[in-house]
Amino acid sequence: MENENKKINHIAIAVPDIKEAALKWQQALNMKKSEITILEEHGVKVVFLEFSNLKIELLEPLDNESPISKFLEKNPKGGMHHICFEVEKITETINSLKDKNINILGDGNPKIGAHDKPVVFIHPNDLSGTLVELEET
Length: 137
What we know:
Oligomer: single chain
Radius of gyration: 15 Å
CATH superfamily: 2,3-Dihydroxybiphenyl 1,2-Dioxygenase, domain 1
Number of domains: 1
Structural class: alpha+beta
Order of helices and strands: EHEEEEHEHEEE
Number of strands: 9
CATH topology: 2,3-Dihydroxybiphenyl 1,2-Dioxygenase, domain 1
Helix content: 10-25%
């Protein structure tokens, strides 16, 4: 993955109540807020709060099967869940990561994310305990 001209797309925070959390973030930091969207395939509700150079993604689980539910069991008040970086060619990036013995979660293939673009997640064990999402630009 070449890092030239890449940027952080968003930082994701798991929350137990997305409406309450979005309102607090919006009021505290005067941020523009998107509508809440349901992503069935990922098992979450999402809302984005925007700064000029970065988005904060709030995630609420849809049910107890959601990976976010498991995160909230350990962190009931919520907390940082993952960081998302933009990449130009996600398939080439995946192949490059696999060549470096970096594990992609799931079946290793991209899924469509909250921005209607292909995304994958890198196993946190491979990057200092941090869950990393890659989103194709």
